[in-house]
Amino acid sequence: MGEELSRTQRLWRWLKKPLLWGIPIGIFLAVLAVGAFQGVMVASNQNSFCFSCHLSMDTIVQEYKASSHYRSEDEVLATCADCHVPHGFIDKMKVKIAATADIYHMFKGTITKENFEEHRPRLAKMVWEDMLANDSEACRTCHVGDNFDLSKQPQRARLNHEMMESRGETCINCHTGIAHKRITLE
């Protein structure tokens, strides 16, 4: 018969079997988790997801649906996420986590269809401050190159766009009412 195995050898033999199964199971679970995470990120960037809560504040959805960002002759449409969710991973996660407060307030009933317009200036100001802080990054993601041909703009718009940077302005300084009605801040 063979030699008797040491305690360490017996322990390793016992651990080796679960490890051989654990590695492929772990990889499968990791791929599944990443896929689920990506699925949630994609689903939560769809207009239908945004409308599911904001439709109860129908002014926002109706304003957006009447805007050039929803209806365009060029067939270039912007979704809610194109304007309200950053493209970079870290910034996107910050916004998604902060958006859970909206879900909380929806369930708690803090902001309802009846009182939404009272809260709207404060909420709009938060969005505009973010856009000012990031130099209207969301706007500049789409409005570049052929999508932002200054030569096709009326003279006044072309001149204002050419002078924006020298005046320290960004898109949101002039276009606060582009997809939703212009809000007067208190």
Give a structural overview:
With 186 residues, this protein is an all-alpha fold. Helices cover 62% and strands 0% of the residues. The protein contains nine helices and no strands. The longest helix has 37 residues. The model has no long low-confidence stretch (mean pLDDT 85).
Overview in brief:
The chain is mainly alpha-helical and 186 residues long. 62% of the residues lie in helices and 0% in strands.
What distinguishing features does this structure have?
mainly alpha; 186 residues; elongated; single chain; 9 helices
What is the element layout, followed by pairings?
Layout: H1 7-43, H2 47-54, H3 58-66, H4 80-84, H5 89-108, H6 116-133, H7 137-142, H8 155-163, H9 171-174
Mean pLDDT: 85
What Rg is obtained from the alpha carbons, in whole angstroms? 26 Å
Q: State the major sheet.
A: none
Instruction: Kindly state the percentage of residues in helix.
Output: 55-70%
